[in-house]
Every structure is written in structure tokens, then in C-alpha cells.
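Per-record layout

source: Sparus aurata
name: Leptin receptor overlapping transcript-like 1
length: 130
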Amino acid sequence: MAGIKALISLSFGGAIGLMFLMLGCALPVYDKYWPLFLLFFYILSPIPYCISRRVVDDTDSASNACKELAIFLTTGIVISAFGLPIVFARAEVIAWGACALVLTGNVVIFGTILGFFLVFGSNDDFSWQQ
């Protein structure tokens, strides 16, 4: 039952994060949809780590190059997702208020993705791995 509660709270967090992203785009004061490009970063961010977990054998306690590369690529994607709205705001493509809403949505969405890997990342009975 704890897995269901975690899944529901993670989906609620994802919905709140997407709401902040949509508010940064669709409010009549801002009315620019450029921040929706961040959806690509949300989709791409867990992919390197998921691939490395499939490839890497976890019996090693030492760190290996594949896992380190996956963490590096994921960090690059996350930093780019935080940098893009700031670049848009500096170039006056979007307003600074929209940038603040989008950055708040980024914090919530990436926190939700991190929470998913912390909750469902172990190899126990209730897991999304095969």
C-alpha cells in the first residue's frame, strides 16, 4: 500500500509542476508559449540513468564509467532546463514573472522525477523494473 501512496503523491507533484509551467505560458499577462520546450528536457532527463541501470551490473560497489556518464548527462539536461527560461527572460522573449513560474515548475518536476527514482529505484517487490 505504501507504493500506491507514493505513486499518487508523485503524480500529484507532477501535475503541480506542469501547472506552474502552463501558468508561465498561458496567463494573459505573459501569453508566450516558448517555455513549453522544457517538456523535451522533462522527457529526456531520466533516459540516460535508465539506460545505464539496464547496462550496468550493480554487484560492483565501486563506481563505473557508464553510471558516471549517465549522471553527467542527466545533470547537463537538468542544468539546461533551468538555464533555458533564464536565457529567454534575458533575451526578453518571455517576462521575468513567467520565468519565475517556469523555474518553480522545474523544481517541482525534477523533484518528482528524483522522488520516483528514490522510491521505485530499489529492487524490492514493488518495482517498475523487470
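summary: The helical segments are 2-26, 38-44, 47-55, 65-90, 96-120. The chain has one domain: 1-121.
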